[in-house]
Amino acid sequence: MIIDAHLHLPVGEKFRTLQEKKEKLLAEMNENHVDKCIVIADSWPESEIGSTDELTDLFPVTEEQRVLVAGGISPDVSFRESLSKLNGYLDRRQIVGIKLYTGHEKFYLDDERLSEVYETALRYNVPVLFHSGWDDAQYGNADLAEKVLGKYPELKLVCCHCWYPHIQKCMKLIKYPNMFFDLSSVADDADTQNDIADSVMTLIEKVPDRVIFGSDSFGCSMKEHIRFIGSLDLAPETKQKIFYDNAKRIYQI
Fold it and tell me: In which domain, by residue range, is 98 found?
């Protein structure tokens, strides 16, 4: 059983419509035997990967729903309108989390404007996901995550990409029981996978109930991420937690 807890709609000239992107996503899931996934919306109203409005329309809530949605929001883009819409989606259980694109966008994780986002997530008991790593990593660094958790200890905070390629930064946060780690993108570079594998193994061994599988498809390879996690020397029950159980619990799937 696999839940891919971090992916986006495919982009590019081959996919002219949202329906074509949806069909490609479902085909990718079928090819890689992924049971469910969480597709993450952009924070902008117009985007190739889809806005929250578009994704909630594209993947409506059903009893057999395979594709769930995490909504996106930015303090710099129609913030009040977006926050109001997120509350409506959460009321109707159309989204399972809220994504902040720290680093992709120039705002910090502890920006005071985000207090309403964190309070909304607490009220609905959903996680807040944030981008980390690569260039402009200062906007979502470990010290800021610690500040947020210090102020909102009950908040479920998900670090997307585990500060890739500096996975060891996760260790600073494992003392916080509501800090979770999303492995999307960690298998992106074949040349660094051995070093990355050691850091990922250490993290999983420390907090096996708080590490979540994600691929960041279509920016990265779903197949390669499944292969990478499957290759780690982990007990079968631990792999089950990473691939399925943890996401199911954290996102209330």
Answer: 3-250
| Residues contacting residue 57 through CB under 8 Å, at least 6 positions apart | none
Compute the average pLDDT of residues 122-150: 96
* Both tokens assigned to 74: 């930015």
C-alpha–C-alpha distance, residues 154 and 121, integer Å: 10
Instruction: Supply the pLDDT for residue 109.
Output: 98
> Do residues 37 and 66 touch, judged by C-beta distance below 8 A?
yes
Report pLDDT for 18: 95
Strand partners, 98: 71, 128
187 SS3 class = coil
Count of domains for the chain: 1
CATH of the domain at 213: 3.20.20.140
pLDDT digits (tens, 9 = 90+) for 175-203: 999 999 999 999 988 888 888 999 999 99
Is the pLDDT confidence value at 51 over 90? yes
Integer angstrom CA distances of residue 144 from 50, 105, 132, 161: 28, 15, 11, 16
Question: What is the side-by-side order of every strand in the sheet holding 211-212?
Answer: 3-7, 36-40, 67-72, 98-100, 128-131, 157-160, 179-182, 211-212
